């Protein structure tokens, strides 16, 4: 979709505070060592799209009324419903209504509130769904202000929401979360809890199981020398990174899994693993072509996030809030390359790469410190080693985040489940985010790389055998 087809008009900005004051014993939240290792300026967006096929009670309805007064009243009902239910939800997710202390090592949970923006979008959802432009989608997510020159962001909200009202009567809820405050698991829990509250705010019986326990610092102690503000790193390269969407449907993933299954492995590789390996392979090849560096002359790294909540001994609460995530790093050496005798091209054997990635991730999972009491120094050293490796300019690096299995498509606020869940353009170097398709079986991969790498990546015949490049939604 061309960006000139959409115009976002901000109607109102307001602050949503928790409906009940946060108790005084909970008003100071110490960050854990995992939180501390996330830059204070890092935010991550999510957008949930809802078609205009249900009214606010989920009992029918159709397109937006042609009567403008009725349309405004309906829009007001939608937004008021979201605001009231968000206020109730924030009583359980109170850190996201707080602000960072000056050193960013503490969240002051003093009910400053989340930012809520109401916007009118002058196009229909069908125009966006025809061929989504991820750069254009950035207007559907509330922008976060910049920290001061010294990196202090004590006035910035940790959660910002934008309710986007389309001409067709559809809606998109854009969210922006502080990554230093929460990870994907905790942010997904907030969306689920918020939707449950909005759908039936008279029934609180099912809410507690979704509510995080915000005391991760008692399990993963913070480190004093990490308690300092972290200014945003400048883009010294001056390179523009573009994000494109690649969709792997269930049948093609099954074919890929079958092709990559090994007689020596007890289980077929997971769908996330095979898609990750294919994207990594194609990205390495594209980087080689765009830089004119022979594929066989340098190594490459693949970094993947791992949720640790189910891995500790003794167990930690599964609803532990904040960041409980580690990064695993696998290195592919030139020995994985296969030269073709009758061609100047070099390629990577995908089966070998899958085996390398699978084995490497399992070894890293076993090696990562998951015993309690937790060794925060060891975890920090692990992170530093990972950072050092990914800082090697003589290698190609790809970072991956998987949001698969998060229940985004179950988030019914009272007008049905999402028609589509996505993210806007990431604009970061060599990063891929994976999200389930609506049926929960396919994968949508949003890849952010330089324009030069993307040109080669999206034309790779092996990729196109399994993925569709930005197809129509639904």
Number of strands: 18
Number of domains: 2
Share of β-strand residues: 15-25%
- CATH superfamily of the largest domain, called what? Chloramphenicol acetyltransferase-like domain
Shape type: globular
Cross-sheet strand order for the largest sheet: 11-10-14-16-17-9-18
Amount of helix: 25-40%
Pattern of helices and strands: EEHEHEEEHEEHEHHEEEEHHEEEEHHE
Walk me through what this model shows:
GO terms for molecular function: acyltransferase activity. It comes from Prunus mume var. mume. By secondary structure, this protein is of the alpha+beta class. The chain folds into two domains: 3-226, 2-Layer Sandwich (Chloramphenicol Acetyltransferase), CATH 3.30.559; 241-469, 2-Layer Sandwich (Chloramphenicol Acetyltransferase). Helices cover 27% and strands 22% of the residues. The chain has ten helices and 18 strands. Helix 6 packs across helix 7 (350-367) and helix 6 (271-291) crosses helix 9. The protein is globular, with a radius of gyration of 23 Å. Mean pLDDT is 88; it is low at 55-73 and 339-344.
């Amino acid at each position: 979709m061309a960006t000139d087809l959409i115009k976002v008009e901000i109607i109102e900005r307001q602050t949503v505070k928790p409906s009940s004051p946060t108790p005084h014993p909970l008003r100071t939240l110490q960050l854990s060592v995992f939180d501390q290792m996330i830059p204070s300026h890092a935010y991550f967006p999510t957008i949930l799209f809802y078609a205009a096929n249900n009214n606010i009670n989920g009992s029918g309805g159709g397109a937006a009324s042609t009567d403008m007064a009725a349309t405004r009243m309906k829009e007001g009902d939608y937004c008021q419903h979201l605001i009231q239910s968000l206020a109730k939800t924030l009583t359980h997710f109170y850190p996201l209504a707080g602000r960072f202390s000056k050193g960013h090592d503490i969240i002051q949970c003093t009910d400053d509130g989340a930012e809520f923006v109401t916007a009118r979008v002058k196009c229909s959802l069908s125009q966006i769904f025809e061929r989504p432009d991820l750069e254009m989608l950035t207007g559907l997510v509330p922008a976060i202000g910049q920290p001061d020159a010294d990196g202090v962001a004590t006035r910035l909200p940790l959660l910002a929401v934008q309710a986007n009202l389309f001409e067709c009567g559809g809606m998109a809820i854009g969210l922006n979360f502080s990554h230093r405050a929460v990870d994907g698991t905790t942010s997904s829990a907030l969306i689920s809890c918020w939707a449950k509250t909005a759908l039936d705010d008279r029934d609180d019986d099912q809410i507690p199981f979704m509510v995080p326990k915000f005391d991760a610092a008692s399990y993963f102690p913070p480190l004093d020398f990490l308690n300092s503000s972290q200014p945003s790193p400048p883009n010294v390269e001056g390179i523009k990174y573009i994000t494109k969407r690649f969709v792997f449907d269930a049948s093609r993933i099954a074919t890929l899994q079958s092709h990559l299954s090994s007689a020596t492995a007890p289980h077929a590789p997971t769908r996330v693993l095979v898609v990750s390996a294919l994207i990594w392979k194609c990205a390495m090849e594209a980087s080689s072509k765009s830089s004119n560096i022979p594929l066989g002359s340098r190594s490459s790294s693949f970094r993947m996030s791992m949720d640790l909540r189910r891995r500790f001994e003794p167990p930690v609460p599964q609803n532990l809030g904040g960041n409980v995530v580690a990064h695993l790093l696998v290195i592919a050496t030139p020995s994985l390359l296969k030269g073709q005798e009758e061609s100047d091209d070099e390629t990577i054997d995908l089966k070998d790469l899958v085996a390398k990635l699978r084995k490497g991730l399992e070894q890293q999972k076993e090696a990562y410190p998951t015993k309690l009491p937790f060794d925060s120094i060891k975890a920090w050293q692990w992170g530093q080693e990972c950072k050092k490796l990914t800082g090697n300019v003589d290698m190609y690096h790809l970072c991956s985040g998987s949001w698969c299995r998060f229940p985004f498509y179950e988030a019914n606020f009272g007008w049905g489940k999402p028609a589509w869940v996505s993210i806007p353009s990431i604009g970061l170097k060599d990063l891929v985010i994976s999200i389930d398709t609506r049926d929960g079986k396919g994968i949508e991969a949003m890849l952010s790389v330089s324009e030069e790498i993307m040109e080669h990546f999206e034309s790779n015949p092996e990729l196109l055998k399994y993925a569709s490049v930005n197809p129509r939604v639904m």
